[in-house]
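Pilot study result, target chain (442 residues):
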Amino acid sequence: MSTTLLQIGFLFFLASAGFGRQDPAVRTAPHDHPSLVHVIQVDAAINPATAGYIRTEIDRARGAGAECLVLRLNTPGGLLQSTRDIVSDLLDAPLPVIVYVSPGGSQAASAGVFVTLAAHIAAMAPGTNIGAAHPVAMGGPQPDSIMMGKMTNDAAAFIRTISERRHRNVQWAEDAVRKSVSLTESEAMREGVIDVTAESVGALLDSIDGRTVELSTGPKVLTTRNATIAVFDKSVGQHILDIISDPSIAYIFMMLGIYGLLFELMNPGSVAPGVVGSICLILGLYSLHTLPVNYAGLGLMVVGIILFLLEIKVASYGLLTVGGVVALGLGSVMLYRHDSGFDIVAVSWQAILFVLAVSAVFFFFVIGLGIRAQRRPPTTGANAMRGESGEALTELAPGGQVRVHGEIWSALSLDGPHPSGTRIVIEEVVGLTVTVRKSSST
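Predicted structure:
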């Protein structure tokens, strides 16, 4: 949960950090050399923002007349649909795309295996690994065995298709899905999973110079030795989209947006809750648009919020709040479909428990205030006068005048005549006349 909150807190810091840097392993050749190579970096989970980034960079490289695009990859996995989009773009790319698992210590795990195998040339740096592509859950509950079997079979068929298209080790690729096997860079080279191992981008380009790759338009011979290298990082917008595509962050943004708007409706004119809530809700809805949402789960969350609101208006003494917590909890667990990726999308338990705890405490607190307000004796009006003490200004025989809280009232004594100055207690207010008795404290 702390990681999620830190990601939200440092959103714009992360988005702006590291732009314009050129990797020290990348060397630039003289500008008069005709060959141009674009280099990009994917160093996070694969999601819709990643797929959009890669597609944009393929188009940019083609428009610039680049010889090829080098995708430096380090990923723990990602979403099935996003991976399919990337694989489709790589298989039909108008220019060669080289996926290079680097730097040392990086991995191409889960969805990263599919992306690497789909490249025209697959390469790895020393100290990297590839594999473990079996479907797993991201922070939420695992699906049942039948659903897991369907997902595994689908992923296995998908990776066989890619491997056959790129003439790579089909059996190992299927084992990576079914048995979660992994390989180091030297083992991957020996098993025919990748084409090249290289210490740096420069060494990689030298080693693939003169190779022939098959494009959708036909064969192409690479001319990459001493090429001019242009490095492109993600834009600010792409960094932000990458962060908010996290399922737990999307969930928190949506809840913050809903509660912000609720507070604005309950306290019109507050402004701040409405502004913040609107921004968070838009970000949350955008994130949900890019993720595989289960609308039954979303509906349960809406029901939970409605029950919370009804508790404020209906005196159910906490019953509606309990129902709201149950509905919100079930909806949070069911918010994303579990048939959507090699890494199954789910809201983290920490985020769910945090939201439920805050919601329950808040609404129980509101309920408590309401009950206490109902039980508090009246402080204004005729009912508030009952039991108040005063003093007779004139003889009460039985009518007269009394002073109560500095106000003079016409009075009628219920227990006989009393001289002026007698301490009295108000029994009832009838119109502009109060009925009184002699105070027992005198």
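One observation from the pilot: The radius of gyration is 35 Å. A full batch analysis is planned for the follow-on phase.
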